[in-house]
Amino acid sequence: MLFLPDEQSAEQARTELLRWDGSCLSDEGDQSYSIDPRLEPFTSGPWTGEIRTFAVQDADLSHRPKGTDRHSIAHVAVGVRHGTTMVYLRWQGPAGTDPAAALRTGHAAIMHTLGRLPVGG
After folding, report:
1. DSSP labels for the chain?
2. What is this structure's pTM?
3. CA-to-CA distance for 24 and 28, rounded, in angstroms?
4. Torsion angle, CA of 57/60/27/80, rounded to 10 degrees?
5. Closest by alpha carbon to 109, among 78, 65, 69?
6. Between 63 and 81, whose confidence is greater?
7. What is the mean pLDDT of residues 72-87?
8. What's the pLDDT tens digit per position in 16-49?
9. 14, 76 in Cβ contact below 8 A?
10. What is the pLDDT of the chain when averaged over all its residues?
11. What b/e string do you get for 52-89 counting C-beta neighbours within 10 Å, with b at 16 or more?
């Protein structure tokens, strides 16, 4: 959570964090996507911004031990703003065999945390 001097700087910080968050995708190497990356408008109470979601799995799982989820990632991040207050929250966990369910878990965790934050100026 950042408290910035004006709404313009809060919005700039919010968009820069989500842009940086998306840049980590290109660093992951050779992947096959279970659920393609999405960046969508988001509103929850007084908070407005964007939410980024994706689930990814290594393209080559032959070198991974069976029964582990280290080959997959489910990612949910939200960058929102209310006035001069900017919040960036990110959740990551294993996508496992049901990446949509993992993303729902991450979304619920983000919403729970966002709902508990105080609303500043």
Report:
1. -EE-SSHHHHHHHHHHHHHHHHHGGGGG-SEEEEEEEEEEEEEETTEEEEEEEEEEEES--TTSPTT--TTEEEEEEEEEEETTEEEEEEEEE--TT-HHHHHHHHHHHHHHHHHHS----
2. 0.81
3. 7
4. 0
5. 78
6. 81
7. 95
8. 988 887 666 655 555 667 888 999 999 999 999 9
9. no
10. 85
11. bbbbbbbeeeeeeeeeeeebbbbbbbbbbbbebbbbbb
Instruction: Write the single-letter amino acid at 67.
Output: G
φ and ψ at residue 71, rounded to 5 degrees: -90, 0
Rounded mean pLDDT, 101-115: 96
> Quick one: tokens of 11?
């919005």
Of 20, 19, 25, 49, the C-alpha closest to 37 is 25
Residue located via tokens 């929102």: 80
Q: Which two tokens stand for residue 1?
A: 């959570």
Spatial separation of the C-alpha atoms in residues 104 and 5, rounded to whole Å: 34
Return d(Cα 23, Cα 7) in angstroms, integer: 25
